[in-house]
């Protein structure tokens, strides 16, 4: 098999497996947390629901987002549209404030003309406006339209991991207390139960249940730190204008990031499940 074809096959497998592995891992962590806690906490249920709802919102908006296509391209399409707009402005006694430039490009993958700026995603197999990146774990593209849901997904994932760690921590300490020496300091404990060493001991040790708990604990701690840092970084980038899209710059306010429902959208992702994102009185971003 040629190398390019081999890489495409591997990426296709990763694209299909990553969301499934993520879903199975979350279900496993939820089951372990409920089993150890011996009860179903309303707080934990709320956090889990927020994770899945925002995940679905990110995926749904990514699937529904369609670029502006040009069905018929003529040689003088730009000049014709510009002339029509000038005539309409003169008839309505409104002087043109600036010149409008219409640009198109032909996407060989989509086999159609697109209004710039767009970026083609080889994994989603379509073009997007205002694309940031493709998230393999969620199986969707992160766009300007669903950036707020993605940030909330990162934050709620961090809180869910924190809750599971608070439940798993005391239980793990009771089970590994006989393994850890009484005179061991924190550095030696970290060396013995850090993620790489814990995983190696899990494969070799007969007391696999204790090492499995340590491995889960280390994994949750890593996910907590990564999601929290990445979510804060994305939020800071949007608020300060460092979050850049193709031909789009500038700061965004909380309404533009999370939607037009205020703080209630943090509790329930209306923009991804019910309504349409409203920015400056226009219902554009979700369908662009």
TrEMBL record:
Record has Transmembrane helix as a keyword: yes
A GO molecular function held by the record: protein-cysteine S-palmitoyltransferase activity
First-level EC class: transferase
GO cellular component annotations of the record: endoplasmic reticulum; Golgi apparatus
Record-level GO BP terms: protein targeting to membrane
E.C. no: 2.3.1.225
Entry's transmembrane regions: 20-37, 43-61, 150-173, 185-203, 210-233
Location, primary (coarse class): membrane
Record family assignment: Belongs to the DHHC palmitoyltransferase family.
Domain notes: The DHHC domain is required for palmitoyltransferase activity.
Entry protein name: Palmitoyltransferase
UniProt source species: Trachymyrmex septentrionalis
């Amino acid at each position: 098999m040629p190398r390019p074809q081999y890489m495409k096959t591997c990426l296709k497998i990763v694209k299909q497996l990553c969301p499934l592995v993520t879903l199975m891992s979350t279900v496993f962590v939820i089951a372990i947390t409920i089993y150890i806690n011996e009860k179903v906490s309303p707080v934990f249920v709320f956090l889990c629901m927020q994770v899945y709802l925002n995940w679905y919102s990110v995926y749904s908006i990514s699937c529904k987002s369609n670029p502006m296509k040009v069905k018929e391209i003529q040689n003088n399409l730009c000049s014709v549209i510009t002339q029509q707009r000038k005539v309409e402005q003169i008839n309505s006694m409104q002087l043109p404030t600036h010149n409008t430039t219409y640009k198109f490009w032909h996407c060989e993958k989509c086999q159609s003309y697109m209004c710039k700026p767009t970026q083609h995603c080889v994994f989603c197999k379509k073009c997007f406006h205002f694309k940031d990146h493709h998230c393999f774990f969620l199986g969707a593209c992160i766009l300007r339209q669903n950036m707020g849901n993605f940030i909330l997904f990162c934050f709620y994932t961090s809180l869910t991991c924190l809750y599971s760690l608070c439940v798993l921590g005391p239980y793990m300490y009771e089970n590994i207390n006989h393994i850890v020496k009484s005179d061991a300091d924190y550095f030696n404990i970290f060396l013995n139960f850090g993620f790489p060493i814990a995983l190696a001991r899990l494969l070799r040790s007969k007391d696999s249940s204790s090492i499995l708990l340590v491995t889960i604990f280390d994994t949750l701690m890593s996910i907590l730190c990564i999601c929290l840092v990445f979510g804060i970084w994305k939020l800071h980038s949007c608020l300060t204008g460092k979050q850049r899209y193709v031909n789009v710059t500038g700061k965004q306010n909380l309404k533009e990031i999370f939607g037009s429902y205020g703080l209630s959208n943090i509790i329930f992702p209306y923009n991804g499940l019910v309504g349409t994102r409203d920015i400056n009185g226009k219902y554009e971003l979700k369908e662009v």
